Amino acid sequence: MQIPISDEARKWQGIARQYADDYLQPHEVEAELNDGVLPDEITQRNKTRAIELGFTAIDVPKSHGGLELPMETQAAIWEQLGRVTNALSWCFPEAQSWMFEACSDEQLDRYILPMMRGEQKECYAITEAGPGSDVSSLEATATRDGDDYVLNGEKWYVTSGNLASFIWFQANLPGEDGAALFLVDQGTPGIETIANPKFSHTYASHHPTYRFNNVRIPATNRVGQPGDGMAFTHSWFRHERLMIAARSCGAMARLIEEATVFANERMVDGAPLSEKQAIQFMLADCTTELYAARLMTYDTARADDRAEDLKAVHARCSMAKLFVSEAANRVADRAVQIFGGRGYMRENVAERFFRELRVDRIWEGTSEIQRLIIARSLLKRGLDGM
User: Fold this and answer.
1) Tens digit of pLDDT for each residue in 115-155?
2) Which of the two ends of the chain, N or C, has the fewest CB atoms closer than 10 A to its terminal CB?
């Protein structure tokens, strides 16, 4: 099932699909049975190839040596990478365009451009135990002390913290309005790992809980100007939510393909399982939801490329994440059912996606948060303004 996308997006779709098929997918079961970890030489090979293909620079402005690909094309890339389980596509860092608006020249040289070259990897310390992903209610603080800031707070679910070289830390500013982002080197004195919980999925990237206790960093590590902090965080959320939708489309497609092959080959009462109407209905529902998911994802990406009203695009990214992540969970559930007992084995793609896709309804803003964003946009702007 194809939907219209640009020739450029179609070209990159093929590049990403070949990379996913040749470099990542063959190692899924090995990763699953080894806590998500692959041999160093395989991980390095996969990272090196991703850098060669330009994946670390797809959202980087051309003025800084990047590819500056349209969001439609980026969605096409991440849809194909989303076909792979165990987060094996996370083997490379991704510098995002908003970072080049937010960061000083010094910060770009020290943190962001090395990300583009694959020399640095980041993680995001935003979520907290109480407010969760409600960034307007964060309790962490950054207090100015001469030429430094002193950071305090507890951050949960810092994805890839165990692999990152630096941290994006968001905090409120006592005595100032709003919040700000800070760049913090991993290993700075005062950063303590107080928990490293196991998640349902099997990823090499962990999600530790960090306590920042009087962590002192130079004032030059503050990102942007007063009042900018939330704007940059929203930019990050838009990008991540849209790419979650894209990756979920890829997962849905892989699940449908694998379940269809199995249903055609599995013989029941002398006939293929696929001839059973109950199975056909499940496959039909999966395919219909994938069609709707792709239309929504790529339409949102093109709206971003056209630089449509930012608030409208923000709401559409929430709609895409909400619908596609929930649809992908339904597809995974049906796929497990079609595979039967085989679908409950960790070696089976349906079992892995059944666990992995569940978190997409939670991180980068839960489904309930997305519904609040969508409803508020509707009430403020009306249907025609969304």
Assistant:
1) 999 999 999 999 999 876 666 678 999 999 999 999 999 99
2) N
Please give the single-letter amino acid code of residue 104. S
Amino acid at 62: K
Residue 107's CB is within 10 A of a number of other CB atoms, namely 19
Give the 3-state secondary structure percentages of the chain, helix then strand then coil, rounded to 5. 55, 15, 30
Q: How many CB atoms lie within 10 A of CB 2?
A: 7
d(CA 26, CA 37): 14
Ramachandran quadrant class, 382 (left: phi over 0; alpha: psi -120 to 50; beta: rest): left
Helix (H, G, I), strand (E, B) or coil at 150: strand
- Chain-centre distance for alpha carbon 155: 18
Contacts for 146 with CB less than 8 Å, ≥ 6 apart: none
**pTM as predicted:** 0.96
Q: Look up residue 20 and give its amino acid.
A: A
Two tokens at 255?
């699940």
Tokens 């309005």 belong to which residue?
177
Contact 153, 212 (CB under 8 A): yes
Collapse the DSSP code of 1 into the 3-class scheme (helix H, G, I; strand E, B; otherwise coil) and give the result.
coil
Q: For residue range 55-102, what is the model confidence (pLDDT) as tens digits?
A: 999 999 999 999 999 999 999 999 999 999 999 999 999 999 999 999
